[in-house]
Amino acid sequence: MIDKRFDSARSAVADIFDGATVMIGGFGEAGSPIELIHALIDQGAKGLTVVSNNSGTGLVGLAALLRAERVSKIVCSFPKTAGSTVFPDLYRAGKIELELVPQGTLAERIRAGGAGIVAFYTPTAVGTPLAQGKESRVFGEREHVLEHGIRADFTLIKGRTADTHGNILYHRTARNFAPMMATAATVTIVQAAEVVEAGALDPEIIVTPGIFVDRVVHVPSPALESALNEAGASYP
Amino acid sequence: MIDKRFDSARSAVADIFDGATVMIGGFGEAGSPIELIHALIDQGAKGLTVVSNNSGTGLVGLAALLRAERVSKIVCSFPKTAGSTVFPDLYRAGKIELELVPQGTLAERIRAGGAGIVAFYTPTAVGTPLAQGKESRVFGEREHVLEHGIRADFTLIKGRTADTHGNILYHRTARNFAPMMATAATVTIVQAAEVVEAGALDPEIIVTPGIFVDRVVHVPSPALESALNEAGASYP
Amino acid sequence: MTSATTTGWTRDQIAQRVAHDIPNGSYVNLGIGIPELVAHHVPAGRTFIYHTENGLLGMGPSPAAGQGDPELINAGKRRVTMMPGAAFFDQATSFAMIRGGHLDLSVLGALQVAANGDLANWSTGADDAIPAVGGAMDLVAGVKRVFVMTTHMTKEGEPKLVQYCTYPLTGRAVVTRIYSDLAVIDVTARGFALVELAPGINFDFVQERTGAPIIQSHALEARR
Amino acid sequence: MTSATTTGWTRDQIAQRVAHDIPNGSYVNLGIGIPELVAHHVPAGRTFIYHTENGLLGMGPSPAAGQGDPELINAGKRRVTMMPGAAFFDQATSFAMIRGGHLDLSVLGALQVAANGDLANWSTGADDAIPAVGGAMDLVAGVKRVFVMTTHMTKEGEPKLVQYCTYPLTGRAVVTRIYSDLAVIDVTARGFALVELAPGINFDFVQERTGAPIIQSHALEARR
Fold first, then answer.
1. What is the DSSP secondary structure assignment for residue B172, as one 8-state letter?
2. Which one is predicted more confidently, A121 or D65?
3. Is D53 annotated as catalytic?
4. For residue D5, is pLDDT > 60?
5. Is C29 inside a domain boundary?
């Protein structure tokens, strides 16, 4: 009998420690695991390194975690979405470190971390400031930069449906970084709008196999960043 | 209007040229595109380099292609399945070159070729004969070998269902190498037991998106290597 | 339109001119902003399949205002729809499409394009700017052809087509062709080369507004 | 059973002893041959999830003879079934599970195991052998713990546990623990170390049949 369900977001994030590296799924609000992030804010861990494509909008979700000054560094491809003021303010004030990574390189570095590929050569960013200080090498007359796999202590992602073994299906473009991030952390925590028994999902259509998932939290009606922001919400 | 259907296996493989590199899906008989391979035998191209996990059994499919002496080199992880006599005979006679690659490294090299990753470092095979002559490098106290992406001129794979845009679903463990091989060739040819119009497949469950597929051939009742062998078949 | 020009193509006409050059069945990634207009001008009889790097192939037009799914969005984080034959996938797969050379065309905006095809379109390098790159560097490194669609000059009247980029690069020698309000210009081994002038625009007018020499004799050949 | 031993564990008893050491909920890859027997001896109250590297997690037992699906097979190319919660995936994902350290345990056969944990299990290096490696090198490089399950000696009466492997390696210093018909033996920083003797087998009997020294004092500690 295998059952990865946790009874709450709070219990699922309880052991995230100060200084941990935490991957957080989402591209904009699509796939952002708001309830897990809010539970992490409540939990209080600080000095975190966050790996996430964006930096959140308004005063909820990822932006709220940043605003609470729990994050000392963010590894990110695009930290200035419209509606994003928290990160820019912290960054200009020197209160947060930014490692800027091209989006595809970020995805591939996370995949590599999860797949046991320690490093790889990519043509992306050659000749640009984002390749400065990186090893480069010519293969077949074309220059490539060496990029390293990334791993994390925890991953927080949002699924549409999960089963008790941790198999996950996603919703449309909310899938984005979640399948890679699920593979790249010591502990992967998923919030899912629907949780079913093992055997209820067709084995042919599972996107993230349960081996990559450690904890499943049922969040039946997940909040959306845009809806919270329109309502003027802030967290906590 | 996009329609990638070809009217026959014969027309789909017509332009495979002498000396081409051809990836062929399948793990054992599961996923082996027998009808496309037989069409390639009829077509006559020779001096091929074949990338495939196994080397076929009996006197049909991949084994028949080898037996017809069309293949000068095979890149393979396990060329000696029970029931495989064609490859061993050719190999001992010095009539075929073998590049032996660990199965996971083979999969990752094909994926890398398709994903524009020119090379990567892996811990697999360090300290073994299969790492001899390869660059190695220590990352974090552990030695890794440098492996290069593989690309091909053509890929031949078998799907369960394809649509006219080339989106593919597979059948159980017949999936194996096909999704990677589809990405790594200039021309990817799929034979599918069922072919449907674009829009008939749920966008959430597509395994190989159509961008990776060039030609779709409808093969309603694909032969199985084991059934052909039990019947004592040989091709041509 | 820039303040420095009074004639030439409108944005929609530029988009139409770009679309004219895209073969049927192409897999296309349209950058955020002005390149998105291309989708409104697909020539009759052609189908383009749009890729959005956040994880959808077969992207359709925006839904009606207030409609749509907040988790069915494009790379600009705006709601979109999907076409028959669409597929969802993760970011590693999406950028495998890009980096692996599977997309036929990327249409991008520009801050500067150099005569050798260098592109700068992600940062002015200003001290107080928040650096943000997204998928731009991956697109220019991986997509088979990169078109730039842009006003010929900045709002301040500076040329965007230059000898050397002064802004931080997105990629080196990556741009294939430039579509501006004044002209269509190829990037060739010998530098910028004219393909076509907008109606009412003459060569000298374009050359004066361009920061590097333009080869004029290329035009007839390129238009074939 | 090798011809050189007349007592000790049967193959099924070895499998039972291996299964005894696997925690509930483990993700396990069983090598082809004798390791497959482990699946028949899962202790009451425990569930193991079996991975087969050709693309299935949640592999179930063989179907009845003549039944099953020729495209639902294991790494040995034999027909299998699937359990509730199973998932199919491609080879890149399957080996990401392996190489990325997501599997808890791999149980493999052996030609030779050295005192430092080196494993040789894919080739005797004979001149006329057809080289074939499959996923063995990936498994030993990536899976968290590698158990070897083997007869203590070859059919010819040679020790399989040796000071140094003479056959081509599958991986360096990868084996965690060895289960033979005679004993359970750990691979430690100081070499082979006894964990447990099979019933009726004494230490000297095992040591005489082993090609490197075995530390005896380790046993009590390791069994805790």
1. G
2. A121
3. yes
4. no
5. yes
For residue B77, the 8-state DSSP code is S
Q: Which CATH number covers residue C190?
A: 3.40.1080.10
Question: Domain span at residue D124?
Answer: 11-34+97-223
> In the Cβ-directed half-sphere of C102, how many Cα atoms lie within 13 Å?
31
Distance CA A195, CA A182 (A): 17
Within-domain flag for C65? no
Give the closest-approach CA distance of A163 to chain D in angstroms: 7
Whether the CB-CB separation of A13 and A43 falls below 8 Å is answered with: yes
pLDDT, tens digit, for every residue of B124-162?
A: 999 999 999 999 999 999 999 999 999 999 999 999 999
Query: Hey, what's the torsion of the CAs at B51, B184, C24, B163, to 10 degrees?
Result: 70
Note the pLDDT of residue B108: 98
Give me the number of domains chain C comprises. 1
pLDDT of D156-174, one tens digit each?
Answer: 999 999 999 999 999 999 9
| Cβ contact A108:C92 at 8 Å | yes
Which among B82, B111, B172 is the nearest to D88, CB-wise?
Answer: B172
* Chain A contact present for B142, CB below 8 A: yes
**Where does chain A have alpha helices with state H?**
9-12, 34-43, 61-67, 86-92, 103-115, 178-183, 225-230
Instruction: Indicate whether D122 belongs to any domain.
Output: yes
Q: What domain count does chain B have?
A: 1
Mean pLDDT for chain A?
97
CA distance D180 to D198: 9
Most distant CA pair in chain A: distance in Å? 55
B201 exposed, middle or buried (CB, 10 Å; 0-12, 13-18, 19+)? buried
What is each CA distance from A99 to A19, A23, A82, D145, D168, in whole angstroms? 16, 14, 20, 34, 44
Q: Alpha-carbon distance C72 to B199, whole Å?
A: 17
N-terminal to C-terminal alpha carbon distance within chain C = 28
Query: What b-and-e string marks burial along D108-130, b requiring 16 or more CB atoms within 10 Å of the CB?
Result: bbbbbbbbbbbbbbbbeeeeeeb
Rg (CA), chain C: 17
Backbone region of residue C68 per phi and psi (left: phi > 0; alpha: psi in -120 to 50; beta: other values): left
Contact B204 A169 (CB under 8 A): yes
Instruction: Report yes or no on B120 lying in a domain.
Output: no
Q: Is residue B77 part of a domain?
A: yes
pTM of the model: 0.97
Cα distances (Å, whole numbers) of residue B199 to A169, B196, B202, B209, C71: 20, 8, 7, 13, 20
Residue with tokens 């990186």: A134
Beginning with the edge strand found earlier in the chain, give each strand of the sheet holding C161-162 in spatial order.
C119-120, C112-114, C161-162
Q: Domain of A80: which CATH number?
A: 3.40.1080.10
User: pLDDT over 70 for what percent of chain A?
Assistant: 100
Residue D219 located in a structural domain: yes
**Residue for token pair 């007018």:** C205
Q: Is residue A77 part of a domain?
A: yes
CB B90 within 8 A of CB B73: no
Question: Which chains sit next to A, with 3 or more Cβ pairs under 8 A?
Answer: B, C, D
Cβ contacts of B144 on chain A, cutoff 8 Å? 118-119
Which stretches of chain B sit within 8 Å of chain C by CB? 1-2, 111, 113-117, 163-165, 167, 183-184, 197-199, 201, 203-204, 206, 209-212
pLDDT (tens digit per residue) in D174-222: 999 999 999 999 999 999 999 999 999 999 999 999 999 999 987 666 6
With respect to residue B143, please indicate whether it lies within any of the assigned structural domains.
no
The H-assigned helical ranges of B45-197 are: 61-67, 86-92, 103-115, 178-183
Partner chains of D (3+ C-beta pairs under 8 Å): A, B
C161: Cβ–Cβ under 8 A, 6 or more apart, which residues? Answer: C112, C113, C115, C152, C178, C180, C185, C192, C210, C211, C212
